[in-house]
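Changelog note: in this version the structure field was regenerated for every chain. One regenerated record is shown below for reference.
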Amino acid sequence: MSVEYQVLGKPPGFELRNTINTSIGAAWINGTNAVIASYDYNRSISPLVKDGHSLFGAYSTPVSKKVRLTLYGIKGLSAGSPDVEAGAMISLTL
């Protein structure tokens, strides 16, 4: 579980508000592999945009002793979230 409070300031010409982002989820680790799932809520930073609700999932596995590959996906549940998002991340241990 995580809770984040963002203070965005007051840039000229923009009406931004401080916001709260929360996430609750679980991880399953089997040896060196990990599966992560969470529900995320992001309060809108602007009165012109709706709040975001989404589901997040990821799978992470080592490719070698120094390289790890993580694949992730996000499914938006509200108008303030992207419909679908996916990506990959490569982590290198020095």
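Spot check on this record: The radius of gyration is 16 Å. Residues 2-92 form one domain.
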